Amino acid sequence: QVQLVESGGGLVQPGGSLRLSCAASGSIFSIYAMGWYRQAPGKQRELVALITNGSTRYADSVKGRFTISKDNGRNTITVFLQMNSLKPEDTAVYYCYADNSNRLRLAWGQGTQVTVSS
Question: Is 54 left (phi over 0), alpha (psi -120 to 50) or beta?
Fold first, then answer.
């Protein structure tokens, strides 16, 4: 099994920055891709960014502002989402996830609130 623990959300003013972290533990050898979804009140869940060993992908709404990266440790994998030039429309609960190579969902993080407001 894979366990995901998120951190780094909070309140920030428009134009500010936040960095989210997602630490994976357990059967990390089975992880092929990790990434972030977000869900704002009354809206559908949206894929924000994902990373595999060889590539990254971003939603059009965050391209040029968000950067996903990964740190492979001995027993953990940590994925970071650096969010710059934040806008009020980025306000949402952000969920980390991990998939195996068959695109099966291994785990979800607990979710972290990001609020962009003046």
Answer: alpha
